[in-house]
Amino acid sequence: MKMPYILVGLNHRSAPVELRERLSFPAEEMAGALLELQALPHVSEAMILSTCNRVEVLACANGSAPDLLPFFSARAQLPAQQLRSHLYEWRGDDAVRHMFRVASSLDSLVVGESQILGQLKEAYAFGRAQGGVQSYLDALLNRAFSVAKRVRSETAVGSSSVSIASVAVELARKIFGSLEGRTVYVVGAGKMNELAMQHLRASGVGAAIITNRTFERAQRLAERFEGTAVPFDRLYETVPQADIVITSTGAQQPIFLREHGEAFMQARRNRPMFFIDIAVPRDVAPEMNKIEGLFVYDIDDLQQVIAANRAGRTREAQQAEAIISSEVVRFREHLCELDVAPTIVSLQDSMEMLRQAEIERARGKLGPLTSEQEQALEALTRGIVNKVLHTPITALKSAAKTQKSESLVEVVEHLFNLNLHANLSGRRERKAAGEARKDSAKA
């Protein structure tokens, strides 16, 4: 059986931040995008993973592989030819392997960071709620979560607490040598900036100012980390107090423009000021970097800091890759076994019907039977049926693992004339197959 998965996307290696932000999906647009995907020809299931470092569509192909390039082209408002060189496409085993690597944080900007697994689980839950994630994607994603857990428990890939937020703070420390006595302004109170605050405090930062569009969230974060919360409408008047600004909001347009930067430098009397923008789409307009004394680092600029971190994780990553390779094989075999499950169930139903019919005929000839005789008749007939079924069922399961199941399924159905019982056993067959696919998430 060829696994019916296809994945198309781009990430921090294949596309610059300018392109990634054009393709990112804010929460309020995700439902509509999923509906659009599900309406495409040959797409039976679909979900979207959109983070600061990647935008990926994972789909289940219904027959022919769907063409997802027009979907990305329309989203980016760019010609398909211009976009093609930045996209990667994985099918079948390769798509499964990629999802396992993403979940295990082997494909992350910071190898071993823990945020991506949570983001993937959120994308899965949303896709399932919208009807885009059904049996096949459900099986794949749940197995990906299990693989990620195995990688973290059997390797030291995630042993150090690393994240984009921690790398941003490391960059700030390298810029200043020490963060002691420095004032840091944190724009946004989401998970990324919460992690940034943890690392800032551990680095001995002086004062911390926090703002968010929802002031109560800024207050909670400020109370937790002994910072000062300010209302978002006072952002521009209070930012000049800071030596370092770390920003990560969900804004779809930059919140810091060139004119803001010029005003900040005038208020600071040209004392240097650093912006670390870890948002996608970016919060800081690129033109801000042209102002003398003002330095802007976006998420792509963090890669130099990350390179040193990646070198120390190579050995553990190699061990994790070996785990993933074995898990891809296991998942393919598991999916193939599910593919022959309806035939096995139908075969068992057919033989059970024949067994019951023969018992009834025997009772008519033998007359009333004692309890012991009934038990002996049941044991005898069940034993015969089990021995008859053992060879074809074993053969079906073995063929599934070698991807030769389709021809053998046809042979078994023909030999046992299963179509004669389709109407009687169809309901039970479909129910059992459905339950088997649901159980695959737990396998």
The total beta strand count reads: 10
Helicity, as a percent range = 55-70%
List low-pLDDT spans: 420-438
State the helix count.
Answer: 17
Large-scale geometry:
elongated
- Mean pLDDT equals 86
Keywords:
443 residues; alpha/beta; six-stranded parallel beta sheet; four-stranded antiparallel beta sheet; 56% helix
Explained architecture:
By secondary structure, the chain is α/β, with parallel strands linked by helices. It has 17 helices and ten strands. The chain has a six-stranded parallel β-sheet with strand order 7-6-5-8-9-10, covered by helices on one side. Helix 5 (93-103) packs across helix 7 (135-154) and helix 14 runs antiparallel to helix 17. The longest helix has 53 residues, at 314-366. The chain is elongated.
Which secondary structure elements does this structure contain, and how are they paired or packed?
Blueprint: E1 5-11, H1 17-23, H2 27-38, E2 43-50, E3 54-61, H3 69-76, H4 80-84, E4 88-91, H5 93-103, H6 115-129, H7 135-154, H8 164-176, E5 183-187, H9 191-202, E6 207-212, H10 215-224, E7 228-231, H11 235-238, E8 244-247, H12 258-267, E9 273-277, E10 294-297, H13 303-311, H14 314-366, H15 371-401, H16 405-415, H17 422-439
Parallel strand pairs: 5-6, 5-8, 6-7, 8-9, 9-10
Antiparallel strand pairs: 1-3, 1-4, 2-3
Helix pairs in contact: 5-7, 5-14, 6-7, 7-14, 7-17, 8-9, 14-15, 14-16, 14-17, 15-16
How do you describe this structure in short?
The chain is an alpha/beta fold. It has helices spanning 17-23, 27-38, 69-76, 80-84, 93-103, 115-129, 135-154, 164-176, 191-202, 215-224, 235-238, 258-267, 303-311, 314-366, 371-401, 405-415, 422-439, and strands at residues 5-11, 43-50, 54-61, 88-91, 183-187, 207-212, 228-231, 244-247, 273-277, 294-297.
